[in-house]
Design goal:
This protein has about 350 residues and is mainly β. It is built from 1 helix and 25 strands. It has a domain of about 230 residues. The chain is flat and about 110 Å long.
Length: about 350
């Protein structure tokens, strides 16, 4: 209108809409005609809109609905060993003094649809399954506690749930299948595998094997020959006593207060920081491009130091620490990263 006055045409009383338009002004030819295309659009749009409204309401109700029920299963102990496989949910292990039988107890959580739980028990152990297949929305899971008699070796897998174990002395094989794991005050032959989750371990003694397949490892006060494999995650440790093997496949390594005669470390590209409390008999580090920092313990011990493949990385260590005739061998292959060797004051 360019600043002009907008004109609105209203029909006179008793006249039709089409009769009220002045000459020369476009007018509708009549009521809107429902063509086959328009009917088809309505036929599609209305059910879709109703379905969306219904699904939104169902999802809201499902997200708010909460139900629980308990379960309890006896688990056989055979030749001082117990084996349990749980297909979903978190599991906490407890030693049960005065008991001669193992028992798995816990609570199932669910939303609108109550899932079933079942146990297949044989002399070799128990498989406990939670059927979440029919639960398309909402919560479906369980929290469980496995109570085990003293002096019983345990094999447990949780298929994705978290595992918490503490206070066992007869060995343990734990597999979380992707969940996180916390292990403390354990002894014996220990095999801990998270399958991707993080692993936190403290005060373990025996033959120790840890693997996370990508998860991080945070460990302290480990005693015994040990192999730690993160599969790409970082490793942070303090207080390792015993022969040590560490493989991180790209993750960084930071270990302090290490007392070990034989040490083999491969970071796959991650940085390595190693603090030693006792001179090692042999130390081998392969970093594939990562930087390497080694802090040797105080004292007069000399080392046969070799850096065969630095690929341009800088190498720095006091000449007073080196003696080719020493029985304490240090071999570091950084693959391009810098190498720094020093001695604690």
């Amino acid at each position: 209108m360019n600043g002009g006055t907008a004109m609105t045409y209203l029909p006179e009383a008793g006249s039709s809409v089409t009769d009220s338009y002045p000459a020369g002004v476009w007018r509708p030819s009549g009521p809107l005609r429902m063509t086959p295309g328009r009917w088809a659009a309505i036929a599609v749009a209305v059910p879709v809109a109703l379905a969306l409204i219904g699904w939104t309401g169902f999802s809201l109700v499902a997200s708010l609905a909460k139900g629980t029920y308990p379960f309890s299963y006896a688990v056989p102990v055979h030749d001082g060993q117990v084996s349990v496989n749980v297909n979903a949910g978190d599991v906490t292990l407890h030693e049960a003094p005065g008991s001669s039988a193992a028992r798995l107890t816990g609570t199932v959580q669910y939303g609108l649809v109550r899932p079933g739980i079942s146990a297949n028990t044989t002399p070799a152990g128990a498989d406990v399954g939670l059927d979440c297949g029919g639960v398309s929305t909402g919560n479906c899971g369980m929290n469980a506690t496995l109570n085990v008699p003293p002096q019983t070796a345990v094999t447990l897998s949780s298929n994705g749930g978290n595992i918490d174990a503490s206070g066992f002395t007869s060995g343990m094989a734990l597999s979380a299948g992707g969940g996180n794991m916390s292990a403390s005050n354990l002894a014996g032959h220990l095999v801990l595998n998270t399958g991707g989750g993080d692993l936190t371990a403290s005060t373990l003694a025996g033959t120790i094997s840890m693997s996370t397949e990508g998860g991080n490892v945070n460990a302290g006060n480990l005693t015994g020959p040990m192999r730690l494999d993160t599969g790409g995650g970082d490793l942070t440790g303090n207080g390792f006593t015993g022969d040590l093997q560490v493989f991180t496949e790209g993750g960084n390594i930071n270990a302090n207060a290490v007392v070990s005669q034989h040490i083999a470390i491969a970071s796959g590209g991650g940085d390595v920081t190693l603090g030693l409390s006792q001179p090692p008999a042999d130390l081998t580090i392969t970093a594939n491009g990562g930087n390497v920092t080694v802090v040797l313990p105080p004292g007069t011990t000399k080392y046969a130091i070799s850096t065969p493949d630095t690929q341009g990385g800088n190498v720095n260590f006091p000449s007073a620490l080196a003696s080719p005739a020493s029985s304490h061998a240090i071999t570091i292959d950084s693959g391009g990263g810098d190498i720094t060797i020093s001695q604690a004051g």
